[in-house]
Amino acid sequence: MMNNAGPANSALNRRMLLGTASAAAAGALLGGCSRSALAAPSQIPPATMLRPALDSIGAERNINFGSAFAWARPGVDAGSFVNSAYAALLRGECGMLTAENEMKWQALRPSPTQFDFARFDAMVDWAETQGMKLRGHTLLWHYDRWFPDWLNAYDYGVRPAAEADRLVVEHVRTVTARYGTRIVSYDVVNEAVDPETGTLRETSLSRALGSAEAVLDLAFNTARAHAPHAELVYNDYMSWEPGNERHQEGVLRLLQGFRARGTPVDALGVQSHLAIFESGVPIPELVARQSPAWRGFLDAVVAMGYRLVITELDTRDRGLPADIAIRDAGVAAYTRGYLDLMLSYPQLTDVIAWGLSDRYGWLRTFDPRPDGVPTRGLPYDTDLRPKPMRTAIAEAFRAAPSRPAQ
Ligand code: XIL
């Protein structure tokens, strides 16, 4: 099903992107990244608003549209609701928001004995006052690279399994109980599958508890017990580009295991950090080439009874030339081809972009283009003007078959 071997450099690019680069990004998680070249908040022009909003266009088909949003980072006007121009854009386009970093263990858990909810609380309050729904990302990013340092170095004592159980249950229960029905959907577990091998990642928690499956099941069972109203999602970055076959197979095995063990998982979160790696290949050809195997993967997922969520949409443009018009057209066409395929599944009702403006996209620092030109992978440009990608999303929603109301 997923044996279409792609060009070797795609897999390589992906490894470089998701492996080595992420160590640097770990430091940037909560404020280390320097974007001093950007204008101060006061200098950002007001967003150019289009009507109807993407969320309203989606609503005609019972599709929700939303975005990640972030706390302001020191010295920079991050994609935050405290920046009034960007806040207006979020409010204008979205019906749903996800905190980009502020609900992660690194943010909420300064130490084994402390929780710090100040930032995330403020974000939840703001989203609510704007009438927007909230997704919770993430209750457990099961990947040691993104654990807080203290959790990687944790001393589980003489009864390690019991202590690991206590830690996971305490964390999931505390967060879900605090927010109750204010959070409608959780990425309970994030990125547990190693893309190179398709096996589950080991962490201090899995070693202490005895297996990664046990940790993941515990997180989902605890979330179901304490947030029975919420959609529970397994979220990962297996994508439709060549080089993702092992990752997809690993995710399918994990999803099968959840079903076999009765683990309460409602949906697969397809992060959708898309990438045009290859240069010189017409976009329709790329889309046509990648679609059959990707459909095979999605068919297998929905056949197990899972719903689908696009949780982190953006499109890397490194395979396209620097010319802005060409890049914007390419990103739009690629995103459109992807969304058309995804939205052909009635199991998909939520499309969340990983930010709305290129000014704040994480790819600028996480995966800069080799030529140093700023990436343009989000629907609005750095001056909050809509790009062809915004049109592509709107048109994909308009063309999508309607789905049942949730
Ligand atoms: C990223 C954030 O966008 C960055 O600001 C941070 O430095 C690292 O994490 N997959 C996920 C998200 O599930 O949590 C990641 O977010 C992007 C990849």
> What share of residues is helical?
40-55%
Order of helices and strands: HHEHEHHEHHEHHEHEEHEHEHH
Alpha-carbon distance between the two ends: 31 Å
Bound molecules: (3S,4R)-3-hydroxy-2-oxopiperidin-4-yl beta-D-xylopyranoside
**Gross morphology:** globular
Low-confidence stretches: 1-39
| Class by SSE composition | alpha/beta
Spatial sequence of strands, sheet with the most strands: 1-2-3-4-5-6-8-9
Query: Total number of β-strand segments?
Result: 9
Number of helices: 14
Mean model confidence by pLDDT: 89
Which value, in Å, is the CA radius of gyration?
20 Å
Main pleated sheet: 8 strands, parallel, barrel
Strand fraction = 5-15%
Explain what the structure shows.
- The chain has 406 residues and is α/β, with parallel strands linked by helices.
- 43% of the residues lie in helices and 13% in strands.
- It has helices spanning 8-32, 54-59, 84-93, 105-108, 118-129, 149-152, 160-179, 204-209, 212-226, 245-261, 283-303, 324-343, 363-366, 388-399; strands at residues 64-69, 96-99, 133-141, 185-190, 231-236, 267-270, 273-275, 307-316, 348-353.
- An eight-stranded parallel barrel has the order 1-2-3-4-5-6-8-9, surrounded by four helices.
- α3 (84-93) links the parallel β1 (64-69) and β2.
- α7 (160-179) runs parallel beside α9, α11 (283-303) packs parallel to α12 (324-343) and α12 runs parallel beside α14 (388-399).
- It is globular.
- The relative contact order is 0.15.
- Residues 1-39 have low confidence and may be disordered.
- Bound molecules: (3S,4R)-3-hydroxy-2-oxopiperidin-4-yl beta-D-xylopyranoside (XIL).
- (3S,4R)-3-hydroxy-2-oxopiperidin-4-yl beta-D-xylopyranoside (XIL) is lined by residues 25, 28-29, 100-101, 190, 237, 271, 312, 362.
